[in-house]
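Sample entry (131 residues):
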Amino acid sequence: MRRVWVLPGVVIVVATLLSACSAPRKPYVCVVDPSSSVDVAEIWECNREIMVRVVKGKKFTLREFSRASEFFEALTGIPADVLAGSDGKLPGTDVADDLARWDAWYDENGGRLVWDPGSGRVSVLPGSAGP
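Predicted structure, serialized as C-alpha cells:
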C-alpha cells in the first residue's frame, strides 16, 4: 500500500515495507533436485559463477557468497577469504586468489567428483589426484 500526500511545495510518499519484509527469500541458485540426474560439473560451475561475479564486482547476494564459499571450502579444503559482517560473511580481498586455487584443484580432482545421495551433496572419491 502506498500513500501520497501533497502539501504546498512538498510531496510525501509512505510505502508499506511489510510486503518486502515478508517476501520469501530467493532460493539459492545452486540447489539441485536430488531425485533427478545430478551433474556435479554443473554444480561446481554454478558455484564458480557466483565467485566470478564477486571477483568482477558484479551483483551477488551475501547468501550466494556464503553458500558458494562453504561449498568450495568443504569440497576442496581450501579456505575462502571471508570477513565477518553484521549481515553474514563478506568477501575478503583475496577471493580472486581463492578462485584460482579452486580452479587448480578442480583441474586435478574434477574427475573424482561424484554426487553423494546420502548427504545430498558433491563429494570427492578417494584416490590420487588427476583424471
